[in-house]
Amino acid sequence: MKRSDFGDDFTWGVASAAFQIEGAPSADGKAPSIWDELTRTGKIAGEGGDQGIDFYNRYPEDIEMIKDLGFGANRISLSWPRLMGTGRERLNPKGADFYDRVIDATLEAGMEPWVTVHHWDIPLALWQEGGWTRRGIVEDFARFAEVCAERFGDRVKKWMVFNEPASVAGHLVLGLYGRKGLHPNTTLRSVHHINLACAEAGRRMRAALPEDAEIGTTNVMSVAYPYEPTDERTARRKRAIEALAIDMHLDPAGGLGYPFEANRLLNLMKRHIEDGDLESARFEYDFMGVQCYGPLVALRKLPVVGAVPTMTVPGAEARVSSAIGIPQDADALLWTFRKYANHPVAKRMVVTEGGFGGQDRLEPDGRVRDDIRIWVYRRNLEAVLAAKAEGINVDGYFAWSYADNVEWVLGRSPRFGIVYTDYDNDYRRIPKDSAKWFQRLLTTDAGVD
Fold it and tell me: Does the predicted model carry a pTM greater than 0.85?
């Protein structure tokens, strides 16, 4: 495999999120996010929620390291409470200055900044008012996105509005934010408000940004196993779970409404749709960020809910699972490209996250051997090449993540980085074998096995 196989216009990058790397939870006027509150109340496993990996202070060396590995783009996210405190305040100048420095350092390193407006760290104050269940959050979020575009749009040309709405819905269902036993109706109301908020944010950003800026977003995008069902019953179940897990987050922006016919649980959404909402939820993205860590896997049926996924996939690759139990099967990514290639919002796709969570160890010889991660990356990049050969428009891949960091509620484990973070020794960054693999791929003509 060679870099040239992907074409000169293919974007190679790494990705990260503010809460997971920055630390400095109260520095320079930052207010708490919901994730800071989960850290304070002990809901984050182990240590690390407060510290991240100290990117707030160490960003210059991290950006230089990313550059040296051969990547041409650095995807970051903007912390809403670092920039606007409780969510509706005027722009915090010190918070904005921090992101100015990060963006400028990225550009000075010869890399392109790709910026996610929101990666889950909603201000705690807004969450306590109801968070995404409150319809007023649409205006709050749109205003935040507009302010970000106005401040950083002179240098940032690639934008993503929201990271993985499906994951936020999952947090609500599982009660990770402390509200146990939420009715599905509450989660679906939040999903609808997120869809409205993203579309309105996109419109305001487009009005504020230069003409050469591109606005995308990111979504969990996958397909349920089996990829090609052979009977109608399995096909219906497959459609039902894909509608609930994926399509209800994509279809409204494409002017398709909600896939009510595919999953009866979605009928609860209808009580939250006001006149004009389906039109307001439409937005023409310039690209769609695909984030597929594995298949939605096999299906079984439960009362009321209908089809649900199980963590089982037949076949050889299914014997490999990440440390959080996600079966690895690159065919899922290829079938995802195929399914959504003609979707109104996904005619151009970028893999804005891809990677593998493992239990990596620093060995006595100073190496971190992560052969499985290399295998996963190679298989996923082969899926990208196969899609491109079929004429599907995929023009970028971002490794998640550039370094081990705080994996949300799971804390410091599992490790997703291509660079090892040595938490016991001043957060040293040690490139793993996978980082060296990428470096060979991106900086030499020799190719990689």
Answer: yes
